[in-house]
Amino acid sequence: ESTSAPNFIRNQVREEIEAGSVDTVVTRFPPEPNGFLHIGHAKSICLNFGIAEQFGGGCNLRFDDTNPAKEEQAYIDAIKADVEWLGFQWAGNVRYASDYFDQLYAWAQHLIREDKAYVDDLSAEEIREYRGTLTEPGRPSPYRDRPVAENLDLLERMRTGEFAEGGKVLRAKIDMASPNINLRDPVLYRIRHASHHQTGDKWKIYPSYDFAHGQSDAIEGVTHSLCTLEFEDHRPLYDWFLENLPVPSRPRQIEFARLNLNYTVTSKRKLKLLVDKGIVDGWDDPRMPTISGMRRRGYTASSIRKFCDMIGVTRAEGGMVDIAMLYHAIRSDLEDNAPRAMCVLKPLKVVLTNVAEDHDEVFEVPGHPARDDMGVRKLPLSREIWIDADDFMEEPPKKFFRLAPGKEVRLRNAYVIRCDEVVKNASGDIEELRCSVDFDTLGKNPEGRKVKGVIHWVSAAHAVPVEVRLYDNLFQVEAPDRDRDVDFLEHLNEQSLSVVQGYGEPSLAEIKPEDRFQFERVGYFCADRHAAAEGKRVFNRTVGLKDTWAK
Ligand code: ATP
Ligand code: MG
Ligand code: MG
After folding, report:
1. What Å distances lie between residue 329 and 53, 164, 212, 445, 549, CA to CA?
2. In CA terms, which of 207, 236, 341, 435 is 20 to 30 Å from 366?
3. Which one of 268, 297, 383, 541 is the catalytic residue?
4. Would you call 258 a catalytic residue per the annotation?
5. What is the CA(268)–ligand 3 centre distance, in A?
6. Which of the four CATH numbers 3.90.660.10, 2.40.240.10, 3.20.20.70, 1.10.390.10 does domain 340-543 have?
7. Tell me: the pLDDT tens digits for 111-120?
8. What are the pLDDT digits (tens) for 236-251?
């Protein structure tokens, strides 16, 4: 049922299919392999693959690899893994814009022969200057009227590496006075003496995004080329190439609003900066809004798909999605599907003075309150237990329903205990509590008293030590990159990670990478996939228990 929420694009595709103007839908997801995918890409993935799925078509995975200096095989591998983990399968083989470099080159020659492209010797800066502004038309380059033969010759020599980077470009000859600046003779090829991860040293020139994208769509028979709104002004250019080249099919570009999420940044360039500066522990740091970071944090693929369904697809620009909605999506998934366990993050020792040294009692409790299929777990009780230090107050305020001197509380799934004594060390710190058990309280209220509080605990003799990593938002402000004059790194939350050593119940002894739990009263946690693979018991906090998303 996921990835099928209606939206304006799905409706449009349905109408076209019903009207017979489209036969089989073909979409594509076209990442540039210059970083890991983030939650914004997930929106595009769910839309593109979701539409293909819904209408029985196919979605291509095409790497938009026209800028070799910034691209790497490692990013290609990570992107493929992320798309598959999200639960999608691309049609046929993975594709690359670089697969089409020969064809694109032939089309560039075609434009030259038609007097629709020319080699320009102006520098990048001069081109910008000649291009004009929104209120001022551009001026033609002095090289605009080069003869066809000279253009063909120069382009070929650019290709073979005869000229320095920046020395020449190939431009389309469209309209220097167009109100749309994208049509003022856009650049089709740049000289780059860079090795390419797919084509090696074959090319010394690389096509621009605009020259590669629509033609790649046409070669692949893409019917709907879905992209974010900043490309709306490029659409006339997208169409110009398709109209002026002998392409095998006519794709159509449709734009939608990009996802902006508060307290985060969704730009590969900025995320790469966090990685390169060592601010986070790699692209898959659980604080990163990358697919792989979210996975390591404990998100399920279905929760991310559900989130993408919830946010919908529109053309409304500038909106900001509350990250609480993302938290809601994973929380409701884990609420239904994560087994329960008790884990004490801030251990305080409690001695149960009326429990014998050799007491061996084991409670059998459900793995999940509503899921019989999750079976039961065993909770042993012994004379010494750990409780959370925050569940005790020496001088409690009025409405404190947890433990305090002389007060009673229920140990979850077990007995009611009363705090009889607070033991302190020489410097006055609490060392342990001495409490007594009321053995007549299992599954029932004590005689004549009402005990409101329930706290979690683990038997000290049976507890397993765990490392718990508590993650918070990476940024302190809602829109860290809104203000262009302030470096977004100034808004970093210095407290985005704290690591604590706690104690878990015995069911946490044997864990596999990515095992997920609700630690009762604490939150949802996931066994860190890297640490668990090394046999270490490390849990990442995925999300807290309290839902703050205002529907
Ligand atoms: P970034 O600025 O993070 O590098 P990008 O758009 O340059 O983003 P691409 O690798 O080119 O990254 O993106 C692949 C596809 O994902 C594109 O079709 C793009 O429109 C889409 N996409 C990227 N970011 C978002 C976003 N925040 N919301 C929706 N779609 C997005
Ligand atoms: Mg891009
Ligand atoms: Mg980019």
Report:
1. 22, 52, 37, 36, 10
2. 435
3. 268
4. yes
5. 6
6. 2.40.240.10
7. 999 999 999 9
8. 999 999 999 999 999 9
